[in-house]
Amino acid sequence: MTRDEIRQAAQLEFAASGKEIRIGSEADLPLPLAELLVLDATHPQVLEAHQGGLTGFVYRLRTETGDWNIKKARSSSLVQNPDGQTSFLNEVQRRSEFEAAADRPAGIVRTRYASFQQRLIVSDWIDGQIPKFWDERRLSSLFDLLVDLHLRGFFEWDVSSGNLIDDGNRLWMFDFGYMYRFDPKVDFNSNGQAAALFHPAERFETRSYFAALLEIESREGQDAALRAFVLEKEIALAAYQRLIAELRKQGAEASVINWLGGFARRWQQALSADPAALYLAEGWRSHRLDLDDDLRGQTCTRRTLARTDWLIEAVSKHYDALVSLDALFWHDAGLTRDALRQQLVIDRRNAEGWQVAVQ
Q1: Residues 219, 170: contact at Cβ < 8 Å?
Q2: CATH number belonging to domain 3-124
Q3: Which residue from 42, 209, 255, 278 lies 20 to 30 Å from 262 (Cα-Cα)?
């Protein structure tokens, strides 16, 4: 079994066991527990209701003690795979570990109460905005957090804007449904060394940034998108250089140092020689992986369709460049232009059929 399969089997077994994980005390709740368990958008003290999440509903509750984030799990996740079905359990587990740690990573929201069996999480409300655009401050704050989490052995697979809040000074991460444990000194990510394609910068680019770049392309043109990409890569490069240096101090295996160093060297060379080629290769990887993830979970949106259209256009106009850049991977590698384009057309048709009412 793979590390993924072992983890999924253990999570499914725990979920079926009836066992509980609980954080905090009922005495610290902003309202009586019984009232929180039936809380919905009609409650007079609910200021905001965010009910479009794939795994749960979030309410902003105001009491005399301040504003609170109340998260209630859906009876069944809209993500149709084992990771989606166990994401709430996984989130409670990660929150429990953060609260038990001597020092919680900066940018990780404080959990005041959580119960897996009661399907409830109560945390501080962070007053801010979900990032709609990415400037230098936001990018720097995010990569600081990603490096900190990586060094502590937490790998976040879903680095999407919808899981982040900007309070004007820093970014906060508040959703941990797809964050898994690993050993950064010997593993690439939570799949050990079996999935070398996945790393913190890739997860951000795949789950969030290239969707934002696609919007910039549409609104301001390719040159503006390329400038935004170069800014992100420069910040990612500096962050990876810090990450590598710290892992060396911790005695990480050479395979880990060489793996991360390979990304850093590639970025550094491309930024000085041909950033547009890097943009094409990283864009293909990001849009293709995100499309694959949405199709496997059957959780496609209008954004999925836009990203698929980018892929179809890229293979139509830049197939030879993609091949020369070694950008095609997995089942796409070795396909002809026509075969790859036909597969993407089929993928788009499936994405149209698996639309969910969230963005």
Answers
A1: no
A2: 3.30.200
A3: 209
